[in-house]
UniProtKB/TrEMBL annotation:
Limits of the Lactate racemase C-terminal domain: 282-421
Xref: InterPro entries: LarA-like, LarA-like_C, LarA-like_N, LarA_C, Ni_dep_LarA
Name of the protein in question: Nickel-dependent lactate racemase
Domain LarA-like N-terminal, chain residue ranges per copy: 8-206
GO MF, one annotated term: lactate racemase activity
Amino acid sequence: MKTYPMKYGTEVISVSVPEKNLLGVIKSQSDYIKKHEEEVILDALQNPIESPRLGEIVSPGDKICIVISDITRAWQKMSFYLPYVVEELNQAGIPDESIVFLCATGSHRGQTKEEHALLLGEKLSKRFEVIDHDCRDQDNMIYVGTTSFGTPVKVNKIAMDCDHILLTGAVVYHDLAGWGGGKKSILPGISAYESIMANHSLSLNPIVGTGLNPKVRCGNALDNPLYLDMVEAAEFVKPSFLLNVIMDDQGNIGKAVAGHYLKAHEVGQQLVEGMDGIAISKKADLVISSAGGYPKDIELYQASKALINAKNAAKKGGSIILLSQCVEGFGHDEVEQIIVNYDSNQEREAALRVDYTVARYTGYLISEIAAAYDVILVSQMSPKTLEKINIQIVSTLEEALQIVYTKKGMDLQTYLIPYGANTLPKMNE
């Protein structure tokens, strides 16, 4: 029997699988030379990609907007790297009062003062306040242009009124945008609600009744309309600088890229592919995946990323056990509504096309995966919550395994994915 630890909320669960059935543990490749996180950040800032250093871009008297991620992405350890950004600005003659922190909440909820303090860290939170972007605050939006995909781009005035916009975040696989980080700090990060929804509606196949657009998927930038649309939106804004981190398999900052907001991010994509794009030679009968613990499994909305990645390692009709505590339940009312208010995925697709939101899309995508795979969720959510889409919810891994083994037998080829929100299994071509 092989035993492997997986995160569940703030706990660790031991996952045991018969050795003869274990196809492998799908996790990040960490064969690069380990550096201290400080060295990683400083090296990126001191060696920007296709850009002067940040301190050479800004001038005394400039107003700076630093765009940061929200609490659902606290795993990127922004409280660690943001002080280095501020320090370089200060050294370049930019005082604290000329720096604004704008949180790229997109269409997510606003945050508490305590959460803001977690984002900035103890020292910075005593010096700065965080402004949450409100995508529905029309009075605080400015129109910057319409993309070739027809998306009207309206962006937060606070950012646009500054002399320089700095993007921070993490490069990671993303089920809609192909890649997280980079241009996502602009759209959806600090864009108006209608801009976000117009962009994200590109996730549906243009032909009604055919469901999802197959080009909209993790790791695809080449012909992903969402990705390309976001890039056009960012080009309207023209951020001055970017710092994006890349997390290793232990949740530490393993690498970072800085510089031009597009070119540096593209280099980051290549680094992530080398770390988190894991080749597999066959698919499994059973995939056991963890979202990666808190805060990645704070809610079903966020934890769905791990489910989306896990399906790439499972045979069609195979079983997926997802460890996701979901202390905040669905995480969004519209995720719940699209799942529980309709009786079929055809009805869900039709409703989504009439009133598209990111949260409703996420609920629909979960429903589509549940129709193609046997999904069991280990969670604190109510056991009846996902009955409409035939996802069983249990409170322990042992219960989940018992259900699978009773239904399909013990002899199941199995993959384990300990950091499912980040790791993308990819079949060898």
